[in-house]
Structures are given as C-alpha cells and as structure tokens.
Amino acid sequence: MKFLMPAALWALLGVAVLIIIYIIRSRHDDYILSSTYIWRLSERFQKNRLPLQRLRQFLLFLLQLLLIAGIAVTAAHPAKILYGANVSYALIIDSSASMNIADGMGITRFERALSRVSEFAETLNYGSDLSVILAADSPSYLIRRASSKNDIDKALDSAKCSMGHSDIPAALSLAQGLYEETGAVSIVLYTDTDYETVRNIETVDMRDESDWNVAITSLNYEVVEGGFNFFGEALSMGLDTVLTASLTLDGKVIDAKRIEFADGEYTPFVFEQPGLATFERATVTLSAKDGLAEDNFYCVCRMQKLPANILICGLTPYYIQSVFEADERCTVTVAEYPDADLMAGFDFYIFDGCLPVSMPEDGAVWFIDPVESVNLDLSSLGIILGDTIEDELAIVMPTDASGEAFKVLTDGITLTDAALNIHKRLIIDSTWETILTCGEDPAYITKRMPNGLRISMLAFDLHASNIPMLSDFIGMTQNLLENSMPKILYETDFELGSSVPMSVLPFCESFYVVTPDEEIITFPTDGIRVQLKPEKPGIYSAMQTMYTGVARYVDFFVHMPVSESLPQTGGFIGVAMTAAQHEAMTSEASEGAEELKRWFAAALLILLLAEWGVYYYDRI
C-alpha cells in the first residue's frame, strides 16, 4: 500500500495530543455530601465496578486513537499497489459504414463498441489513463489520456459513425504515438473486420449472430430499340430471403418484381422498359427490414443535355445550320457577318469563313475555314495560317491520339471514306490537340480555355469535303456541342468519402447544391472549380443560375462504398513495439494503484459508531 497524498499524515500528531489530554485530565470530581453513609455504599459499589470501568475507558481511548489515525490515513488517500496497471490504454473504434449494421434488437455494431468502451472505462485502475480514437476516413481522438469515466462517457456521446471507409492504419499510428509519452500503451481495436494477422494489439469483434444486411451493389442502364433496360446486382448477407425490388423513374414507381436471394451470393436483376422515351433519374429500391437501410437503394442519374443558344456567322452556313436547327434543344441565330453587337449572349459561336472583331467571352467558339483578318490576330490563340493546299486527301483520326478531348469529340464516329480537296495548313502551338488530320496537316483542332470554354477549328470549308454527306457529321457536331461548353459535372456516380469536383460555368451568378436532407450548400462563383465532400448517401442536385437568368442543374448520386456492404476482411494490422516498450507493458515497472479511500471511510464510520456506543454506555 502507498499514500497518494502523504502530507496528510501530519494529522497523526493528533494521536499525541489525545494521549496528553488523557494524561493531564482530572480523574474525579469533588462533591460535598451531607452524609458519609451513601458514600461508603457507593465506594463499595465502585470497587466492584472498577475493573469493568477501566476496560471501557481503555476501549474508549483506543477507539478515539484509531479514529484520529484513521482520519489522517484516509486524508492521505491510501492506495493498493497494482503492478502492470499504470498503463495508457488506446481504444480504437472502427467507424466505417458497415459498423452501422444493426442486430435483431436494433443495436448497431458501433453502439455496441461505444458500450464496450464505456464498460472498459469503469474498470480503469488508478494511475492508468484512457484514450479513445475514432477511426473514420481521417482518424481523430475523441478523448486523450483521460481517467474520469464521466469525461470519457461525454466524449463517447459525441461520437458518430460515418457512412464511408475507416483508415485503421492511420488510427494505429495515432495510438502508437502515445508510446513516446507514456512508454507503455495497450491498444484495443473494436471492429467488424476479420484480420488474418494481428500484432501487438487486441481486436474485439462487434458483429452479432443476428446481423443481416441486403444491399444493391450496382445499377446501370442501356439504350435498346424503343426504350431502356435497367440492370444491376444485389447481395444478401446472413439470410436466404425473397424481397420486392421496385423501379422508380423521375419520382414515380413504374415497375416491381420479387427477387430470391441466397445468403452470400450476388443476385442479378433486370427491369425492361421498352416504351420509355427518356428519363432523368432511375432508382431501384429493395423493401427490406435489414440491418442497414442506406444500401437498400441505388440511383442512376442521366446527364442532362442542356439547351444551347447558337450564333452562326457566314455567307453559306447551310450544312451546319441545318444540323443545329434539327436539334430541338438549340435556338439558332444566323448572321452573314460577325458584327460587334452580336458578340455576347450566346452559348456557342460558329464563324464559317470569317473571323469576329474580338473573341466572345461568354461562349464556346468554332472556326470553320478560317481566313486572314485585320480584326482578330489568330497568333494570340497559338495559330498561324499557312498556305492553301489544293489536293484530294483523306480525313482520318491520328493513330497516336489519346487525349481526353479526342475521346469525347470522336465518341461514336468512324469517318470512313471522309475526304477533302482543299484545306489550309495550320501551324499550332502545344496548347492545341489534333482531332483529325489530312495528310500530315491538322484538319480539326481544339483546346480548352482557362474558363472551361472550348475553341475548335476546322481547317477546311465544309463545301470542299464530303463530311456533311456522312452520317458521322451529325455525331461530330453533337459531340462538339456537348463538350465545348463546360459541364457542372462530368459524371454522376460517386462513392461516399470521395470528393465531387464541380465546374463553375462562365457568367454564373449563383451556385448551390441541395443535399438528400434538403440542406442547401452554397459555393463561390468567382472560381473555375469547387469540391464537395458528401457526408451521407443519396441524391444531390447541383444548381447554377446564369446572368441571363437561365438555370443549369444536374443530379448526381452518392452511394456507400460497395465494400462496406460486403463481409469485412483484412490482412495484417499491427504496431511496432521496441523490446523496452514490450517489457514496460509486462513488467512490474509499470505499477499502478487502486484507491482504498472508500474502504477506510467505511471503517471510520464503524469506529465512530462504536466510540459513541462505548461513551454512551459509560455515561449511564
């Protein structure tokens, strides 16, 4: 035993004071009596009581002495030495999405882990401390080196389980950092993952036999003749079952079917919609009362084809004008000359055989058969017009092209037998990407400007080639239209935990995102790109309003990591520990103490009652 506050032992001087009091105090009192007869009788009676009275007085003295000594010892905080107990404990709680799976009683694995940590804190010995680390995608301390159970419980009350991955190695690094401070750290990981090898840590399995979860792991669509097909896979873990899956298109349930699941096996499903003309959002939902609802649905959001306001300048723009006027999304304005008062308010500017006085700033630009002009210096764009070549040449895709622009602008086209008989030689800098060539010369080039708008150029007159006669001509112009103006998003399916990159469209006045909880997140409009870090799965809507009042929007789906819906397995986890640190964990050098103050206080209460009883009996 040792004393945590040994200075309080000075109170033992009270024992000496008690002894002095007993020595100097009077042993009898003098009384004047009228007769000696009673006194003689009393004296004879006292002689008979004297041995017992002396015993009571001694017992009273002893009890008072023990009370004083007990008070001094209790104030000094007596404690029992516990070897191997003066240890810093690092308890790591896995907060990955799979820890949200609930058992048959509705208690999640994460809640069970919090309860286990709270129970651990209750058994913490004096001299030891406890750190709790929440292992999310970016691990952090919930509480650090605490010994008060109330403080630990308050920290646990603030803990929330994520819907993404957890970075267990980073959490172990945080725990290992405590070695430098304490020299002895015991690490416990509360998780639902099976690890093949564990070193220098203890793992506690948070799974329950009643756990059951079903998840949709993928959803896609394909265009078929006269409609669409929606297909994907689902997985049940822990139970053979039959569930109803429903298909919702743009907020309306249009189909449902029963799906039979075998435990642990992927089950494919298909919804055929032959009469469907178009859709924006398609969602498949499983009706299941399983352990986790957030992976019971999956949504595919179709990229919106935005309307476009197009200006075409040229004397004979028949081919290009007819293609865009046939597209119901396009509003086409045609002018013979690129007057300065027309150089604003359009999404797409096409200059066929002419150049503008200055470059438009609010839309994409397509030059067709460029000419020398005093109005616009093409060298400022990195282009020099060379000689005019009159030769019949094939128009082909370069064999070494692999850039992103090449992929999107040639998507779905082959340009078989495309040819021309006259073109201009273009001398370009490295900022341009060649999409088509004729001979050794670039015939179709493009580049993206810093504001996200695309500038493209055809080095020939469409009337001098057979491209307008080919079926690929419509696809080529559609690809250019779709990829010349920046998009808010270039994909609509994201995994929780990843960032969602979004483009700020030119001349955007307001930009916000609506979350699945209908929370509105606003973004600045003075940049080019912004990032969103979703915190929960569901359908999000990104909205931008232009200075013209036109609104642009796109929906996108954020889903749980598919791996979190599967049985969790892992390879090796562990921490490095030196020989000295390992010895500190197992030797008597890491001693702690368990306070005995409450036991001494109880003994003092018993002594006090005994002393009072003896004193009272002696006074009778």
How does the overall form come out from the CA principal axes?
Answer: elongated
What is the average of the pLDDT values? Answer: 85
Number of distinct helices: 11
User: Based on DSSP secondary structure assignment, what is the total number of beta strands?
Assistant: 33
Q: Report the β-strand fraction as a percent range.
A: 35-45%
Category by helix and strand content: alpha/beta
Main β-sheet, spatial strand arrangement: 17-16-18-19-24-23-22-20-21
Distance between the termini: 41 Å
* Helical residue percent band: 10-25%
Radius of gyration: 42 Å
Are there runs of 5+ residues with pLDDT below 50, and where? 585-594
Q: Mind summarizing the main beta sheet?
A: 9 strands, mixed
Mind explaining what this structure looks like?
Helices cover 23% and strands 36% of the residues. The chain has 11 helices and 33 strands. The protein has a 9-stranded mixed β-sheet with strand order 17-16-18-19-24-23-22-20-21. The protein has a 5-stranded mixed β-sheet with strand order 5-4-3-6-8, with helices on both faces. Strands 25-31-30-27-28 form a 5-stranded mixed β-sheet, with no helix packed on it. A hairpin with a 4-residue loop joins strand 4 and strand 5 (140-146). Helix 2 packs antiparallel against helix 11. The chain is elongated, with a radius of gyration of 42 Å. It starts with a strand and ends with a helix.
